[in-house]
Automatic annotation (TrEMBL):
Glycerol-3-phosphate dehydrogenase NAD-dependent C-terminal domain ranges (all copies): 174-309
Statement: the UniProt record of this protein carries the keyword Lipid biosynthesis: yes
Organism this protein belongs to: Rubellimicrobium roseum
UniProt name for this protein: Glycerol-3-phosphate dehydrogenase [NAD(P)+]
Catalytic activity as recorded in UniProt: sn-glycerol 3-phosphate + NADP(+) = dihydroxyacetone phosphate + NADPH + H(+); sn-glycerol 3-phosphate + NAD(+) = dihydroxyacetone phosphate + NADH + H(+)
Superkingdom of the source species: Bacteria
Pfam families according to UniProt: NAD_Gly3P_dh_C (PF07479), NAD_Gly3P_dh_N (PF01210)
Pathway as given in its UniProt record: Membrane lipid metabolism; glycerophospholipid metabolism
Length: 325
């Protein structure tokens, strides 16, 4: 049986490992040996409360779990992906590596697939993304995701390997579109949370979601994505989930910004760094990304939600579609 390793024992890596181990040979690898040993004993991950780890799932900090695997799912946060790949290059080279994180590297402005290509040119990058809360996947609730791979044959093979009866995978060859949809929806979810948290109402939230989606498409298409990918699970689908649910950390972070409340810095909020990365990309490419820029300024503490929203309202009136006159 194909051996799968999930690298990164946070909420999402653990959820994927729990879902896959029902039918596959899976190991869950985490970098923190004492934490992994505690998890092996208690069969609980504090980052995924209420979920019992099946007895059949090995949880380990032993790097052999990575070397022994034929396929590795990378479930570490986007800003840590490059360091993880560099640290474990000999174990990962030449393998299909499935990026499960959602973000743009703030240092390089690369998405996960380019990060993999640069760090490990011999590996085959894939992207697994779409609307999914870790707790839902771990509980076996129905979920549909996008699996992107430039190689059609390998994409179809990995699709069959990683799908489960409850986790339905659609495949695409559009890596850039899939990963940018997942990364950029977090930025817009922060904007939507900030809007609601600041008391500006659900109509304003719908406007931000829609105009934010226009920005996601504007940037992604310029970077080589296909429009239909952005319209699918990895773009619109994930945006709808993340920008409307308090199950999302990005949305909750936005709520806290809107309410001027503190937010726990230990919680993974991918959209914060990605807003800054996307704003830089937009600046370099000369793109109009006002919502993204507003989120970047909010995250950096250079504006507040009321001022940012007023600036959006004060912009010159324009056609709704980029293509319209
Ligand atoms: N939680 C979800 O519902 C969910 C769903 C879909 C996608 N994702 C994505 O998955 C990624 C991880 O999110 P999460 O929810 O698991 O976060 P998390 O905060 O629960 O866990 C992150 C894990 O990454 C580990 N880690 C950090 N740096 C590392 C490194 N250099 N090497 C190895 N491990 C490292 C941490 O120890 C921690 O266990 C994010 O990009 C997120 O957007 C999360
Ligand atoms: O909790 P968030 O905001 O990181 O969102 C989790 C997933 O990306 C939703 O698809």
């Amino acid at each position: 049986m194909t051996r799968i390793a999930v690298a990164g024992a946070g909420a999402f890596g653990t959820a994927l490992a729990v879902a896959l181990c029902e039918t596959r040979d899976v190991a869950l690898w985490g970098r923190d040996a004492p934490a992994m040993s505690a998890m092996a004993q208690s069969r609980v991950n504090p980052r995924l409360p209420g979920v019992s780890l099946p007895a059949a799932l090995p949880v380990t900090a032993d790097p052999d779990a990575l070397s022994d695997a034929e396929v590795v799912l990378l479930a570490t946060p986007a800003q840590t992906l490059r360091a993880f790949l560099d640290d474990h290059a000999p174990a990962l080279g030449g393998k299909p590596l499935v990026a499960c994180g959602k973000g743009i590297d703030l240092r390089t402005l690369d998405g996960p697939s380019a990060t993999i290509r640069r760090a490990l040119p011999s590996a085959l990058p894939l992207v697994l993304t779409g609307p999914s809360f870790a707790a839902d996947i771990a509980r076996g609730l129905p979920t549909a995701l996008t699996l992107a791979c430039a190689d059609r044959t390998e994409g179809a093979r990995l699709q069959a390997l990683l799908a489960t009866p409850a986790l339905r995978l659609y495949r695409t060859t559009d890596l850039v579109g899939a990963e940018l949809g997942g990364a950029l929806k977090n930025v817009i979810a922060i904007a939507c949370g900030a809007c609601l948290g600041g008391g500006f109402g659900e109509s304003a939230r719908a406007a931000l979601l829609t105009r934010g989606f226009a920005e996601m498409q504007r940037l992604a298409l310029r970077l080589g994505a296909r429009s239909d990918t952005l319209m699918g699970l990895s773009g619109l689908g994930d945006l709808v989930l993340t920008a409307t649910s308090e199950g999302s950390r990005n949305y909750r972070y936005g709520l806290s910004l809107g309410r001027s409340e503190p937010f726990d810095a230990a919680v993974t909020v991918e959209g914060a760094a990605t807003a800054r990365a996307a704003a830089r990309l937009g600046g370099t490419l000369g793109l109009d990304l006002p919502v993204t820029e507003a989120v970047a300024e909010l995250v950096e503490g250079r504006t507040n939600v009321g001022t940012a929203l007023q600036r959006l309202l004060d912009r010159p009136l324009r056609a709704e579609q980029d293509s319209a006159d």
